[in-house]
Design a protein that fits this description.
Low-confidence stretches: none
Distance between the termini: 33 Å
Number of strands: 0
Largest sheet: none
CATH topology of the largest domain: Growth Hormone, Chain: A
Strand content: under 5%
Number of helices: 15
CATH superfamily of the largest domain: MFS general substrate transporter like domains
Shape: globular
Number of domains: 2
CATH class of the largest domain: Mainly Alpha
Order of helices and strands: HHHHHHHHHHHHHHH
Oligomer: single chain
Length: 380
């Protein structure tokens, strides 16, 4: 939180674009420290029978932030300039840092010995993600595909290094010998790959096809995260009593149906129908997310909580990258290098249609991994 807070302050007044990007990178490092450890801290602080309930509240808080953040950020940008967003992040960061020092307490002593990981393995992992991200932003150019291919190759090298390392950063055996852990993470990866670009696509649709202002479009799109924030705690609590895979699979099935319906958007689609679909997908997401996270954290020993939490966070970020890559690909196919303002509505709607069809197919595949993960054993 300190790293995130201080870098937010620097971003609020820095004059150079290059330095701004650098400190955004630093800000991301701070954010990764919190996102990778948050679930581990909570799970280790409560009895197993309350795990789903606690994670449900946490997921609800995340979605509440997703709902409020863009809305408030838009207002701040409109009336106080974009730098005010980082000033606000700094003020909130100071407050959260104080709360953390006051109430988080100290970690329990562990018998695990600290081992220094192999640095060159980490370098391959970092290079892979950079290549994948940079390549995905330049689709469909040939160099983009080559960069993404290089990124995949780097990931394979990283996997081989980790598999042979006595002290790996990522325990590959969890993916090869723990079906519950592996399939739950794959389901999360597929879920985020199929859903992250929804807001991106629909915001452009509301602007170009319906002619709405950014503020009005944001008010409509807020329906999905609000529903997710409301129902995630209930889904988490249910996952303490029922098998989480049943809840998660039901949620992913609802998401698949919603994505299929979005593929039929047209210039005459009524807004009330879009809101209903957003509520439907949001409810499906709340049924999936908390129980799935409960399964991931319950599928490993206590000493691996940090690794499980970090892996789940990585699946989320990778899924977001994949989702935007798919959306960018179809925009490149149907829109070419033309700006959104000059392409016809039919061209734009075709790009949106095939993106949602792809997302629906992906989500349908995720249903298999969600249902086939196996039964979660409860340890009360």
């Amino acid at each position: 939180m300190l790293l995130f807070t201080l870098s937010s302050l620097v971003c609020s007044f820095i004059p150079s674009g290059s330095w701004f990007i650098f400190f955004r990178f630093v800000q991301g490092i701070g954010a990764s420290f919190t996102s990778a450890t948050g679930a581990a801290i909570m799970v280790s602080s409560f009895a197993p029978q309350y795990r789903g309930r606690v994670l449900g509240i946490s997921v609800s808080a995340v979605y509440l932030g997703l709902a409020v953040g863009p809305f408030v950020g838009g207002i701040l940008t409109q009336y106080a300039g974009w730098r005010s967003i980082f000033v606000t992040a700094f003020v909130l960061g100071v407050f959260i840092s104080i709360i953390s020092f006051m109430y988080l307490g100290k970690d329990e002593k562990t018998e695990l010995k600290a081992h220094k990981p192999k640095l060159y393995g980490t370098l391959f992992y970092m290079a892979a993600l950079v290549l994948l991200l940079m390549g995905s932003s330049d689709i469909p150019a040939l160099k983009a595909w080559l960069m993404m291919l290089g990124g995949v190759a780097m990931l394979l090298v990283f996997w081989m290094i980790e598999r042979k390392s006595p002290h790996p950063i990522i325990e590959t055996k969890l993916f090869t010998h723990n079906k519950l852990f592996a399939f739950s993470n794959l389901a999360a990866l597929i879920n985020y790959s199929a859903t992250f670009a929804i807001v991106f696509l629909l915001s452009l649709y509301l602007h170009k096809i319906q002619g709405f202002s950014p503020q009005k479009a944001g008010t409509i799109l807020i329906a999905q995260p609000v529903v997710m924030a409301i129902f995630s705690p209930f889904a988490g609590r249910l996952s303490d009593k029922w098998q989480p895979r049943l809840l998660a699979t039901t949620g992913m099935s609802m998401i698949t149906l919603g994505l299929t319906a979005f593929a039929f958007l047209s210039a005459t689609t009524p807004i009330w129908l879009m809101v209903i679909l957003l509520v439907w997908v949001g409810f499906g997401f709340s049924l999936f997310s908390s129980p799935n996270m409960n399964t991931i954290m319950s599928s490993v020993d206590k000493k691996l909580y940090g690794l499980a939490s970090g892996t789940a966070a990585t699946m989320r970020v990778l899924g977001q990258m994949v989702s935007m890559t798919i959306a960018t690909l179809f925009f490149s196919i149907f829109l070419g290098k033309n700006s959104l303002d000059v392409v016809s509505n039919n061209q734009f709607l075709m790009a949106v249609k095939w993106a949602f069809i792809s997302f629906a197919i992906l989500s349908a595949i995720g249903i298999y991994f969600s249902m086939s993960r196996g039964k979660m054993e409860r340890h009360h």
